[in-house]
Amino acid sequence: MELKIILKPECTTCATPGSKKKVLELISDLIAAQYPDLSGQEIFESLLSREKMGSTGIGNGIAIPHGRLDSIDTPIAALIKCEQPVQFEAIDKQPVDILFALLVPSDQCQQHLTTLSAVAEKLSDKQTLKQLRRIHDEQELYQVITQ
């Protein structure tokens, strides 16, 4: 799946959230602002529920927080580049500065796994990661992740 299908430019931002909870709240607010049928609280609870099962920090400064929602029928994403890395209990114990959040319909388990895999593959590309970390402009950030 092409990332530009699930990621709106308005759900891409550079920020300094300060903590894991704050970055999850930021993701929730960003998505809720673009999808009026969703509440920020509903999104936050879905992301937080998944984090309680284990951190979605996959290492190398990357996290892919994700959750399932009954109220959507297509995947929705957000991209956050933290200007100051955030402690995220990642697998390698390193702070996180790139977060690609993903919300998927509750009944689409296979699509969820396929999309997560595509995001992880994109973020494992060293050149892409280097570009993302160099950028401080949301529009450029969106262009790099969706190219």
UniProtKB/TrEMBL annotation:
It comes from the Bacteria. GO terms for biological process: phosphoenolpyruvate-dependent sugar phosphotransferase system. Pfam families: PTS_EIIA_2. Residues 4-147 form the PTS EIIA type-2 domain. InterPro entries: PTrfase/Anion_transptr (IPR016152), PTS_EIIA_type-2_dom (IPR002178), PTS_Nitro_regul (IPR006320), PTS_SugarTrans_NitroReg (IPR051541). One of its GO terms (molecular function) is protein-N(PI)-phosphohistidine-sugar phosphotransferase activity. This is PTS IIA-like nitrogen-regulatory protein PtsN.
